[in-house]
Amino acid sequence: MVRRKAFLHWYTSEEMDELEFSEAESNLNDLVTVYQQYRNASIDDNDFGEDPTRRAIH
């Protein structure tokens, strides 16, 4: 929807800049990357024979 600029005129008429959409998309992509790294780290921990049901108490 953002790439095709559907409904963009509603937001720009309310003084929102198109760059804010680009920045938000970039932030979301960064967040997805971080979550994928944690997911991959979790999978790697299980490969070493650790019990996935055991949790560390801090």
UniProtKB/TrEMBL annotation:
Keywords per UniProt: GTP-binding, Microtubule, Nucleotide-binding
A Gene Ontology term for the protein's cellular component: microtubule
Cleaved signal peptide residues: none
Entries under InterPro entries matching the protein: Tub_FtsZ_C (IPR008280), Tubulin_C (IPR023123)
Gene3D superfamilies in the cross-refs: Helix hairpin bin
Keyword Transferase: no
GO molecular function: GTP binding
Domain of life: Eukaryota
Family recorded in the similarity comment: Belongs to the tubulin family.
Protein's name in the database: Beta-tubulin
